[in-house]
# Entry
Amino acid sequence: MIEKRSGEKSNLVQVLDREGIGRTLARMAAEILENDGDNIVLVGIHSRGVPLAQRLAEIFEAGTGKKIPLGRIDISLYRDDVGPWRPAHSQPVLKRTELPFDLDERVVYLVDDVLYTGRTIRAALDALVDYGRPKAVRLAVLIDRGHRELPIAADVVGKVVQTSRQEDVQVRLLEFDGEDGVWAGTEVADGD
# Structure
């Protein structure tokens, strides 16, 4: 058992540490460049997709000397679990969408931390087409945990983590959580 900072116990197992995330992102960047060259734009999906897209852009710039256009997209209003039936306290908090480039005829890589049911990506696709008509849209995810509910697959996957639907995958990033790492497993309530 791993002790969580809150004092609760969990059965979470670390599947990537800081160095592992760095190596994985470097491999993903190389795969993206091999597939589409540097004629791409990266669009991070709020929240953890945004710093992952930033890190990929930094890897591209370090390797090629070229800046890759970088944007961010908020899918809050495009989710299929948002509506008047939800209590006010659970309504989404809107974040900024920033796409400081033309999407038309560009190869757009949506970047996210975890691919699960596919519903987040469906919402991101809906949001993206409100801003233009890309030549192609591809998906790059750090973790693919399976269990799709929609016919969506990632083009570039950092790591496949086999989980059950009862398990959780937690991606922690320095920018949000003060540490880098990926954990998978189940939470254990106090007293268990």
Q: What stands out?
A: Confidence is low (pLDDT under 50) at residues 1-7. The first strand starts at residue 2 and ends at 3.
